[in-house]
């Protein structure tokens, strides 16, 4: 109770304090740090919220499949249920395999997470082999680590938990979004409340998974809480909401009229990016590298997450995504029959949204320091040759970045 009263007293002092915006921000960050030290807050943010979103996404998809079954729509029932159960097996395999490998680790420098897994009851490791339950076991171990005050900045927490949700978001949430948009346009049915809720939760799960992964991948969690960091996270979230919304709407509309061709369109995008990345990144070798990048490019087909590791793959993926969106929505608009009210708004919205998303992607690369801003570039053109050479010598090497194989394996 003393800690709670201290937090209340701190926030009351903030409310009564007067000063410049910078001082107010400093007091706000100090207040947040006081709150964040409470283990209950950490468990709610790092465990309860991700699990609730995961369960909500899974539950609404299953409920939607049952709704199709009760309405005697066997085809849509099969597709919805298949795109729910299939990703479960993928996520389960990753989570179960990770828990098993961590439990068998004998490295003297193993992380706090690995030690917590090995010290956990054997029941945890047994339950990790049960589908759906395995991810809960993962978070049960994570909760024990939080309550014991252990280090939560290890590789397992920074990489594997975000990747598990990223896999679930791409294989389940995004595929469900595309499917439900296709069903709505193809059947011209009245959209139920359950479908709207399911689609909103799928979008939230996708954006949360991508932003969280980028947050840890770029080591933003190790930086102090500043206005610049908060602004960057807000920008990143808005960009991913726009990017994913435009992408899934485009694919859903195109699939409603040209279902057999959507797989070819996605496959060509995936193949082009896979070949390009293997030609650029020397670290990706062998079967493991192929599997790692193949999985990563499934993600990047819908949302640019790994391709910004290199400037050339970033530009290629940006061009393929922009041209793909514009081409698919244009073909859908010109070839579809009927004159629905949403035809022109969809065409204009997707074209504009795709262009704005591409611009946001460029801004994101500038913010991360991987692309030089136009202002800096123009200023550098006016410098002397010696100054320009010195700047280039001190700048990061081109196409620098962590290998996808290192990030995912």
From TrEMBL:
Against InterPro entries, the record matches this protein to: XK-rel, XK-related_scramblase
Q: List localization entries.
A: Cell membrane; Membrane
What domain of life?
Eukaryota
- Stretch list, region Disordered: 388-409
- Coiled coil regions, renumbered to chain: none
GO-annotated cellular components: plasma membrane
Q: What is its main location?
A: membrane
> Any transmembrane segments, and where?
43-70, 76-101, 122-142, 193-216, 236-255, 262-280, 286-307, 314-334, 346-367
* Transmembrane helix keyword on record: yes
Keyword hit for Cell membrane: yes
Keywords of the record: Cell membrane, Membrane, Transmembrane, Transmembrane helix
Q: How does it sit in the membrane?
A: Multi-pass membrane protein
Q: Which family does it belong to?
A: Belongs to the XK family.
This chain belongs to the protein called XK-related protein
Organism of derivation:
Branchiostoma belcheri (Amphioxus)
Its gene name is LOC109467195
């Amino acid at each position: 109770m003393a800690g709670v009263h201290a937090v209340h007293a701190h926030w009351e002092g903030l409310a009564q304090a007067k000063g410049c915006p910078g001082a107010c921000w400093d007091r706000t960050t100090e207040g947040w740090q006081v709150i964040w030290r409470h283990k209950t807050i950490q468990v709610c943010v790092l465990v309860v919220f991700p699990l609730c979103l995961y369960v909500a996404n899974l539950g609404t998809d299953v409920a939607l499949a049952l709704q199709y079954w009760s309405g005697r729509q066997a085809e849509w029932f099969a597709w919805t249920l298949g795109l729910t159960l299939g990703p479960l097996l993928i996520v389960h395999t990753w989570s179960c395999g990770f828990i098993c490998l961590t439990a068998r680790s004998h490295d003297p420098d193993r992380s706090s997470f690995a030690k917590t897994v090995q010290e956990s009851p054997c029941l945890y490791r047994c339950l990790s082999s049960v589908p759906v339950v395995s991810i809960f076991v993962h978070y049960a171990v994570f909760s024990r680590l939080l309550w014991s005050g252990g280090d939560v900045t290890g590789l397992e927490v920074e990489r594997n938990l975000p990747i598990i949700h990223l896999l679930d978001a791409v294989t389940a949430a995004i595929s469900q979004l595309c499917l439900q948009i296709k069903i709505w346009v193809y059947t011209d049915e009245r959209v139920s409340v359950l479908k709207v809720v399911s689609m909103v939760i799928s979008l939230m799960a996708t954006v949360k998974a991508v932003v969280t992964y980028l947050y840890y991948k770029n080591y933003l969690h190790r930086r102090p809480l500043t206005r610049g960091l908060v602004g960057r996270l807000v920008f990143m979230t808005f960009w991913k909401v726009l990017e994913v919304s435009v992408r899934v709407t485009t694919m859903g509309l195109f699939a409603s009229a040209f279902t057999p061709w959507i797989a070819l369109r996605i496959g060509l995008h995936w193949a082009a990016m896979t070949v390009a990345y293997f030609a650029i990144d020397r670290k990706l070798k062998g079967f493991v590298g192929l599997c790692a990048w193949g999985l990563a490019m499934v993600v990047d087909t819908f949302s640019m997450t790994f391709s910004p590791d290199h400037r050339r793959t970033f530009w290629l993926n940006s061009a393929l995504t922009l041209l793909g969106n514009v081409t698919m929505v244009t073909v859908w608009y010109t070839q579809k029959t009927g004159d629905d009210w949403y035809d022109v708004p969809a065409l204009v919205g997707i074209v504009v949204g795709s262009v704005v998303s591409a611009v946001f992607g460029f801004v994101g690369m500038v913010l991360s320091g991987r692309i030089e801003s136009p202002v800096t570039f123009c200023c550098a053109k006016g410098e002397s040759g010696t100054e320009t050479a010195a700047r280039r010598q001190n700048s990061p090497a081109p196409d620098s970045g962590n290998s996808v194989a290192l990030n995912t394996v």
